[in-house]
Design goal:
By secondary structure, the protein is of the alpha+beta class. It has helices at about 80-85, 95-115, 120-125, 150-165, 260-270, 275-295, 300-305, 310-325, 345-520, 525-535, 535-550, 570-575, 580-590, 615-625, 680-690, and strands at about 1-5, 10-15, 25, 25-30, 35-40, 45-55, 60-70, 135-140, 145-150, 165-170, 185-190, 195-200, 205-210, 210-215, 220-225, 230-235, 245-255, 330-335, 630, 640-650, 655-665, 670-680. It is flat. Pfam families: Band_7, Coatomer_g_Cpla.
Length: about 700
């Protein structure tokens, strides 16, 4: 029986008596009938060289550099799957690694064979900057090579195949370690640039400390956080397929500021072989630095890389530091040296020559500018001298001009005297010449007079011809006047026609309006009454009737106030109303208005006939006024000799009216009526009274 403890980067696979399949742990008590195998959990780089063919049948060699390790982060049973597929049946780590690599070769070769025939070779080359950084491929063509990566789908396909073995695909990153052994039992201290990674009895995972008391069944590994400087001379290719060497220096160290980073670093790299730690770290740094640098260099042009070296350096540093952080490392410094030409290329040589020539030319330009300034200064001094001389010459010439002006003024005065003399001489000559011309004009006038007399005789002979011409002119004028009169008549006809059309349209509109009124009332008699009200015909009839009986003394007393009157009016009222039927017949013939039936009686009954009973009188008054009875006053009590009728309504014009009619019935004299009207419009009251009278 023995107690076995695994290193920080190792696991134990125990099988045998009491274990159904395999038990995986960091520490175990192994019985004689059990078997215990150590295996590491390091992410190991693998180099695979494959032949591939593109969609356009271009064959090329594709060396593949990738890192494979246990997928302990996303798969809980990754260790079990790894042990079942690779650890079982092998007793050494080398045999396990060989089995892993054999399976990886099959998986990657199959994925490449399925992926490459789907893309043309040019697309694989030109789109390399868009490819995932998890798998790096190197392909060759015309002695020029470049690092590129397949699309994410290829990496995903490889990862899907690795999952069944408990493996995972990582970037090519390796860390450096410096483990040291500890005492069997006692207190262990680390140097200032070191940390302790403790595993074993009483520790669940890994304990990171600067000092620790080591107990039995515990392992203490010491690792250094000293920075490592790595120089690389990368052969890369730019976006425009130009190959070059990219010298760079990277300084990497363990991130000692975070315990999580220290624990991650110890889990990945701290083992039992201190001599190989630094070598492994160098391999890791080389893989990460070369991979990221090649990918980024292939995504930009050589001119951008040459002009923006600082930005490129910051971009490379960011990508490398991001990848190193997965191993608990950090990038301390990154420097990009001068770019160099590869064998057979002289691009940078010519760039340097171009810069050298540009500097020489600039120096020549500077010298020429200095010479030009000297020449300009000399010319400026010469110009100033010439300007001074010219100013002095001008002053001398001005003095000469003053003298010349005095001479010219004297000469001008002399010329004026000469001109005056010449003018007087010329004037005398003109006077003499004009007198001669006047005489010639008088003689010419006499000649013209004689000539006019001759022309007069000639014109008399021509008058006859002119008379004929005048006759023709008069005839033409008469014809023009006739045409003018015809045009005027046509204009008057047009105006009359338009007026007739306007009248026709007016009557047509009135006819349509009357038609709409008749249609709205659906009663010709009612529509006619409305039109008579609208035109004020009833008012006119009432006014004429009032004039007809003006001055009479009827026995009907009409009051505008609430006073009383009681004279006998039966006979006179009947006489008046007997005149209404002939009048209404005339109105009907002229206006087609049919009066109410109670107005169409013969000579035996007037317009408002003296009713034999009070009920008839009430009905007639309501019909005449066209108002509504109030408080049931339209009904007369049986055998009553007196009655009061109250009416209310809206008269023509929109005025509100209240009417009270008091009636007294006597068999001998008939009905005696007293009427009182109330309205805000006095004229309305007068019309109501006149309509009854």
């Amino acid at each position: 029986m023995r107690y076995v403890i695994a290193d920080p980067n190792q696991f134990l696979a125990v099988s045998g008596q009491g274990i159904r399949t395999v038990r995986v742990s960091k520490k175990a008590l192994v019985w004689p009938t059990q078997r215990c195998v150590r295996f590491t959990a390091l992410r190991l780089p693998h180099q695979i060289n494959m032949d591939a063919i593109s969609k356009d049948r271009v064959t090329f060699n594709m060396p593949c550099a990738l890192t494979i390790g246990l997928d302990t982060e996303s798969q809980a049973d990754a260790l079990g799957m790894y042990v079942a597929n690779f650890v079982a049946g092998h007793s050494s780590q080398d045999a396990i690694n060989a089995a892993v690599k054999a399976n990886i070769v099959v998986i990657v070769q199959g994925a490449v064979n399925r992926f490459c025939p789907e893309l043309p070779f040019q697309d694989i080359f030109e789109k390399r900057q868009q490819l995932a950084a998890k798998v790096g491929f190197l392909y060759y063509e015309c002695n020029a090579w470049s690092l590129t990566s397949p699309p994410t789908q290829l990496a995903n396909e490889i990862e899907q195949q690795l999952v069944q073995y408990g493996l995972r695909l990582f970037e090519t990153n390796i860390q450096d370690i410096r483990p040291t052994g500890g005492k069997t039992l006692g207190y262990v201290n680390a140097h200032p640039d070191q940390f302790l990674a403790v595993t074993g009895n009483g520790i669940e995972d890994i304990l990171i400390a600067k000092s620790h008391f080591k107990w039995p069944n515990q392992e203490v590994a010491v690792f250094s956080v000293e920075p490592i400087t790595y120089e690389i001379d990368i052969e890369a290719m730019s976006q425009e397929k130009l190959a070059f060497y990219l010298p760079a220096v990277f300084t990497v160290s363990v991130d000692a500021t975070s315990h999580d980073s220290l624990r991650l670093f110890a889990r990945r790299f701290v083992g039992s072989d201190p001599s190989s730690i630094r070598q492994k770290m160098m391999v890791l740094i080389k893989g990460v630095a070369e991979g990221e640098t090649r990918v980024l260099a292939a995504s930009i042009s050589i001119e951008e890389l040459f002009q923006s070296r600082k930005a490129f350096q910051e971009n490379v540093s960011g990508h490398i530091e991001s990848e190193l952080s997965k191993y608990g490392l950090k990038l301390e410094n990154a420097n990009i040296k001068e770019l160099k030409d590869i064998s057979g290329s002289e691009y940078f040589k010519y760039l340097r020559q171009k810069a050298h020539s540009a500097a020489i030319n600039q120096s020549k330009v500077d010298v020429a500018e200095v010479d030009a300034k000297g020449t300009v200064g000399e010319r400026e001094r010469k110009l100033a001298t010439e300007q001074t001389v010219a100013r002095l010459d001008a002053e001398t010439q001005a003095a000469k001009n003053v003298q010349t002006q005095a001479v010219v003024k004297s000469q001008a005065a002399l010329d004026v005297l000469n001109a005056e003399c010449n003018r007087q001489v010329l004037l005398a000559k003109l006077v003499t010449s004009n007198e001669v011309k006047i005489k010639e004009t008088e003689l010419q006038r006499e000649v013209e007079k004689k000539r006019a007399e001759v022309n007069t005789e000639r014109l008399r002979a021509e008058n006859l011809a002119k008379t004929t011409v005048e006759a023709e002119s008069i005839k033409l004028m008469a014809t023009a006047k006739a045409f003018a009169r015809q045009a005027e008549a046509e204009a008057e006809l047009f105006v009359a026609t338009k007026k007739a059309e306007a009248v026709k349209l007016t009557y047509k509109a009135q006819s349509e309006g009357l038609h709409e009124v008749l249609k709205a009332f659906d009663n010709p008699a009612l529509a006619m009454q409305y039109l008579m009200l609208e035109k004020g015909l009833f008012q006119e009839l009432a006014a004429q009737n009032a004039k007809a009986i003006q001055g009479l003394n009827p026995k009907i007393s009409v009051w505008n106030t609430e006073g009383s009157s009681g004279s006998d009016s039966g006979k006179t009222l009947r006489d008046i109303f007997q005149t209404l039927p002939p009048l209404l017949a005339t109105v009907t013939d002229q206006t087609s208005y049919v009066p109410p039936s109670w107005l169409q009686g013969g000579g035996q009954q007037a317009a408002i006939d003296v009713p034999p009973v009070a009920e008839t009188a009430v009905t007639q008054i309501i019909d005449v006024l066209g108002m509504e009875a109030c408080d049931n006053t339209a009904t007369v009590k049986d055998k009553a000799t007196t009655h009061t009728l109250l009416l209310a309504g809206i008269f023509v014009g929109g005025a509100s009216v209240l009417v009270r009619c008091r009636m007294a019935y006597d068999a001998g004299s008939g009905v005696t009526l007293e009427i009182a009207a109330r309205s805000l419009d006095a004229e309305v009251c007068e019309r109501i009274v006149n309509s009854i009278v």
